[in-house]
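HOLO CASE FILE
Compound: arginine
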Amino acid sequence: MAQQLWGGRFGDAEGKTNECLAKLNCSLPLDSRFYAEDIDGSIAYAEALARAGLITDKDAADIGAALEVVRREWRDGSIKFLSSDEDVHTVNERRLTELIGDVGKRLHTGRSRNDQVITDMKLWLRRGIRETLAGLRAVIEASVAQAKQNLGTLMPGYTHLQRAQPVQFSHWMLSHAFALQADCQRLLELKERANLLPMGSGALAGNPLGVDREWLAKRLNFAGVTPNSMHAVGDRDFVVDFIYCCSLASLHLSRLAEDLILYATKEFDFIKIADGFSTGSSLMPQKRNPDSLELVRGISGSICASLSGIMMTIKGTPTTYNKDLQFDKQYAFDAFDRLQDALTVVEGVIKTMQLNRERMESALSPDMLATDWAYYLVRKGVPFRQAHHYIGEVVAYAEKHDLELNEIPLGELQKICKEFNVDIAQVSDYGVNVEKYDVTGGTATKSVKQQLKTLQNFIEEL
Ligand code: ARG
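Model generated. Tokens follow.
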């Protein structure tokens, strides 16, 4: 049986790690995911050792070549694990030593798994961020395509789930896309913030052997080095940040899912979710359930649970590294994987959903123009607060006489406010009113086109 990395002090039979601890201690099922990053970090570290004169250039080259062999073994699945392998770092170092003997044992000089594991995690984060951005980009792209294709389609806009004002379907669609754009921006900011190299922090006190951290940082594409070794080895803020970014993105997908679920009901019937993203009922033959989107809604609960999980894990750990921190990977990878699933499903749903334009437009009703009626009076010089009150009376009149706003005789309107005139009839057209909202960010076609351009430029450059 191979020796544990730290086995020297634990010589006798009674000192053998209890099986249940060995099982719990082993992080291999999680950290195998960044075997490649672990190898990249180790190759660079061997070069740094050679630069510091701690090993020869030939040693560094041999270590590099042997680690490439180990990489291939991971890749083709031929890598074997021993019961003494605690984690990915142990496996790589053991295999290295099996391949090149004593030279391999020099690699860990001045290094600890404490600075090694966060270096790996930060290297993995680049991949995590890149793939999450790609998933977000795909959903934004699908939303932009739907918005572009359906420009000019009107629908009721809601607040409190009550019909509020007419808007363009595209405006609604892009409201979700902009939330996802902000998620991308948050991830890009995190990429910059997390880009400091922890390697060279050792177990906690730093490196006493002259390893050039600045050189290592450049070698591994970091913008700089972490400024305090004790902080560096216990710092998991970048993991919390990443899971927070995933949580927020999942909340955005969940809210989008909720809108779509509602709009797909027979009561709304604004959209039809494609067969490929719907399921049936084992009992009720007529059912068509939006399970895909309900799962997306559910996934966000689980990602937010990972966020609390990592925060609760960190809370209460004393300064520097403690084994509790090993769980960071479980939370980060789970959040990442689940978000990927949700993004893929939402992209598919958006791409394949069908709009029921007639239903959307026939769901509009004249009362939704009450605000525009108030603006009509404002344009005639009536103070807004006063105009709001008059239109309130008009709405009450309509309700009392079971009429729509535009069915009230002009004479009756003039009894409420003398500024009403025949031109009030023009305020009855939904399309004309929507086009008045042409400020930046408004629902007029001009503004929606601007929004489309903003998002298209953004995803092109992403
Ligand atoms: N597997 C460990 C982790 O994921 C690596 C660091 C181990 N460090 C230690 N001092 N035991 O956190």
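CASE NOTES: The pocket of arginine is lined by residues 27, 31, 87, 113-114, 117, 321, 323, 325-326 (CB under 6 Å). The radius of gyration is 31 Å.
CLOSED: yes
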